[in-house]
Amino acid sequence: MMTDEAMLDEPGRWVEARQGGQIRVFGKGRRGFTILAGLLAMAGLTAAIFYVANQPRTLKLAVGPLGSEDARMAAGFVQGLNREKSQIRLRLILTEGSEESARKVDGGDADLAIVRPDIALPAKADTALITRRSFPFLITDKDSAIGRIADLRGRRVGVVRNPAGNIVLLKLVLAQYEVDPTEVTIIGLTPDEIVPAARERRVDAFFSVNAVGARANGDGTARLRSAWGEDPVLIPIREADALAARVRAIETGEIVRGALGGDPPRPSENLPTIAITSRLVASQDLDEDVVGNLVSALLALRVTLAAELPQIQGLEAPATDKDAPLPVHPGAAAFIDGEQKTFFERYGDWFYLGVMALSLFGTGAAGLLGRESAARRRQAMLGLDRLLALLPQIRSTTDLDRLDRYRSEADAILLEVLGDFGQGNLDSSAIAAYRLVFDQVSRAVVEAKIRAAAIQI
User: Fold this and answer.
1) Under a CB-based contact definition with an 8 Å cutoff, are residues 224 and 209 in contact?
2) Residues 95, 92: Cα–Cα separation, whole Å
3) For residue 188, what are the β-bridge partners?
4) How far apart are CA 435 and CA 441, in angstroms?
5) I need a labelling partner for 104 at 20 to 30 A (CA). Which of 42, 152, 246, 265 fits?
6) Distance separating alpha carbons of residues 135 and 251, to the nearest angstrom
7) 37-53 confidence digits (pLDDT tens)
8) Domains and CATH numbers, the chain
């Protein structure tokens, strides 16, 4: 029987057993390599998850029409977020206006949209930011003898016809003062037609929906002054509260003193009027953290893009009061109110539950593995009983053929023991017991052969 006992003394090294000219190799090192491979696989998976999680999130923003103030604002958002390497990026989907943009969000074709609520408001999206606030009013010259909205009966009123919501809004204002729209000639104009129409007396007054207020639109202000002279008459909408109570998309506001410039300032005092907003709305399906981070990133652009896109200074956070007329997205509200939760605040309870679950699972798994290990050890120790059973048979015979069979059986048991040792089913104490019995078996075989030789002599 051939064994390599030196190898049995070092469980961490490879061991060999020779039988019939063949070499079989066993080793506990295989388990170490398996564990190392598993750790490397887990590290690679973790790195891949971390890489994917840190890739910028791209959201689709519906806005239009091309060339509008809203579209220019959206293009500024895209440019600014890319420049700042934000974790959230935008991809524009151009539409024909607020109606189509709202449909895109409701249909799931866009995550965000810039809309004018008095024109269209998506049912499945809430406000994230106010991108622009306009203060509609009527403007004319001092020779027109128009001092209040009721004086517009029988007059020609110009209004920018695109978007069509401007004309709808004008009719709503007229109805507030019980002026039937049929009593007024409403003339749709393009922005470039305003000044010629005023100078040529084709309109008696103009319904302006420009962003004239605390953050004046310089180009629009200059155009109005050019159309109606250096001393225009502004006709505010003083019943703004009543209109706002009737239509939730309309708010109250005021035209600030000096909004049209000049010295003395025009107007000479703050004038009450209605306010119309353009809003960035976010789908209700968007994660709150994503919307909160987007709002934070866009508000930060007011400083970095102010020189290139002056109108971005009109970007403002919506009111988060519970009685606000238009709902605010929970993610935006959490950021605005300073209640945005960190990752661990939001998922901390799940971490604790997960740790407890893993602890229970680990305890159960350890118990099962312990039982399995004990069962494997008991199975591996059965060879010891077989060897002990061979000893009296070897010592009671002098038949060389039978001795060779006993030796072959012991060699087979040795191979099984080495295999179990390589798989970690046997520890050093078990190997020591096996070695002691193998020594006894080897000695018994040698003594039996000596007795057989003496008998033959």
Assistant:
1) no
2) 9
3) 159
4) 10
5) 246
6) 9
7) 777 777 777 667 666 65
8) 5-41+381-456 (no CATH), 132-340 (3.40.190.10)
